[in-house]
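Tutorial handout. Part one gives the primary structure; part two gives the three-dimensional structure as tokens.
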Amino acid sequence: MAKAEKTFTSSLRVKIMFPVVLILIIASIIALPYLYISRYKALLNERINVAKEITEAAEGVLNYYNSLYEKGELSKEEAMYLAGEVISRMKYDDGYNYIFGYNMDNTVAIPFQDRKRGEFLDVQDPKGRWVQRTLRDIAKTKGEGFYEYIWLNSATNKLETKYSYVKYFKPFDWWFGTGVYVDSLKAIVRAAFVRHAIIFSVVIVLIGIVIFLLVDKLIVQRLGKINDLIQKVESGNLSDSGNLSDLGIASKAMSKDEIDSVFENVRKIIGRQSELLKEATKPKR
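Part two.
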């Protein structure tokens, strides 16, 4: 009898817990990639906004030197040269990142990395994308905009994905801007993804344990007692039909649920059968 009850409750636990655990796992599989993508996009937007702000700061320098030219305090050539010199020193990210600037023929106007003023650049990245001509076209046709390509990262000395923001400066007929490297962001997000995966795993285990204990106490053990009661009837034992306290009902003041109702109905049926059996086995006078 005990073995049958154990088999019944074990099977019931598996049937109840399996879909619960499956749902938790599926939810995690869906949620974790979403968190990864959301975090990456948030960090990327932050870096892109930095590029935009720095480009706008460089535009302020250009406007200043252009105003000196318009006032007649500098020649146009002097204003362009001094603006280029000042902006070329506006480095950030520990001095590794920079602002670039070109004439419309793609010759360097603002020196950067090891590129000298007047040097012609029209480079394709490893994916075949034209870097300078595309950035120039964005600045010229739209006035400003972003572009993604692969470029040498001075900090790592590696070719990495770069998002650049460029603007057109009409008084000097220049296009200029700066970019941010995003490969490091992927490493940051991957580390966060691993941390979140560990946290989710722990949470799933804890939730699973709590659900298991609740299901075991509130459902499985009580149904097991009902099953045990039915097994007794099958074996011909009608002497002990049990009571609601067997199902964990500590007080009559506590409300009964469906399992209590089932148990009570089974108990009543057994009670009636027991009475009928007693009547049938009474010696006749």
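Part three, for discussion. The mean pLDDT is 79. The domain at 35-183 is CATH 3.30.450.20 (Beta-Lactamase).
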